[in-house]
Amino acid sequence: MHYSFQGMTKQGDQALLQALGARIRRTREALGQTVTGLAERAGVSRRYVTEAEAGRANLTVLKLAAMAGALRMSLAELCDLPAASPRTERIALVGLRGAGKSTVGRLLARELETPFVELDERVERLAGLSLTAIFDIQGVETYRRLEREALEDVLAEGQRQVIATGGSIVTSPETFARLRESCRTVWLRAAPEAHLARVLSQGDHRPVEGHPRALDELREILARRESLYAQADEHLQTDESAPAAVVQALLERLGA
């Protein structure tokens, strides 16, 4: 499904511009280009690129085609966007454990005055067991099934929510696809060292107990999942940022 350009409402126009902006930014970042570099290659101003990525620019076809070429894409590829849907009323945070999903999620929900949901807490509620017990006693497949059920339960509760997901949800194709079609997804990115440090600072030393290669293993997990996390609508680096600053940056991205 793709955007229809006929009969677009003002709200639909904004959603389209924001989706185009997110596509431009993700592609630029994936190519390692700076805003200035893209502007120079496309022959447009730096401000134009910034406004386009923020979903505020009224993009002309010629300028859009120039930016597509600078991003090594055809105009058709750049404009091949998912259909607009109520998913933009739901925000789902993805990323490795220690990315700040719970902390940022609670603050974001407070700012947006929406419910905050920890998906793994819903999984535990369904199972009547802790996550550790689910994995130890019932195994990964049971966890995956419960995760899918929990997500559907959460989605049925309303259109406006902030959801913090488990770090491995991206490795379950069906569940991750459902999340992406029903929510505006945000990848909270951080270096492996930051992830591990945050978990340890919370008093949880399980990742390192009996695991002398804990950091290397975390790097390997991130490397395997990076392309999956990258499918999120928004990417935010959180290494050096306080949770409140991350929330403000995210609010700007969301146009809230």
From TrEMBL:
Residues 24-78 form the HTH cro/C1-type domain. InterPro entries: Cro/C1-type_HTH (IPR001387), Lambda_DNA-bd_dom_sf (IPR010982), P-loop_NTPase (IPR027417), Shikimate/glucono_kinase (IPR031322), Shikimate_kinase/TSH1 (IPR000623). Pathway: Metabolic intermediate biosynthesis; chorismate biosynthesis; chorismate from D-erythrose 4-phosphate and phosphoenolpyruvate: step 5/7. Keywords: Amino-acid biosynthesis, Aromatic amino acid biosynthesis, ATP-binding, Cytoplasm, Kinase, Magnesium, Metal-binding, Nucleotide-binding, Transferase. Binds 1 Mg(2+) ion per subunit. It catalyses: shikimate + ATP = 3-phosphoshikimate + ADP + H(+). Mg(2+) binds at residue 102. Its main location: cytoplasm. ATP binds at residues 98-103, 206. It comes from the Bacteria. GO terms for biological process: amino acid biosynthetic process; aromatic amino acid family biosynthetic process; chorismate biosynthetic process. It holds the Pfam family SKI. Belongs to the shikimate kinase family. Catalyzes the specific phosphorylation of the 3-hydroxyl group of shikimic acid using ATP as a cosubstrate. Monomer. PANTHER family: SHIKIMATE KINASE, SHIKIMATE KINASE 1, CHLOROPLASTIC. This is Shikimate kinase. It comes from Saltatorellus ferox. The gene is aroK.
